[in-house]
Amino acid sequence: MISFSERQGIVPERAIQIDSVDDHLRNRLWNYFFNEEFVEKYDPIGVDWASSNYGMVEDMLDLFGYRYEDPDSGPGHVHNQQTLQKLLSTCDWNYVYEFIENYLSLLSTEEGSRVACELNALLKEEKSGYRIIKEKECGKAYFIVSPITDNEELATIEKSLDCGLASVNISMKKALALYSDRQTPDYANSIKEPISAVESMLAHIIGKEATLSGNLKELDKLGLDLHPAFKDALGKLYGFTSDSSGIRHGGYSEPLQGTEQNARFMLIVCSSFINYLKQVSQVDSSRGGA
Question: Is 211 within the bounds of a domain?
Answer without folding.
Answer: yes
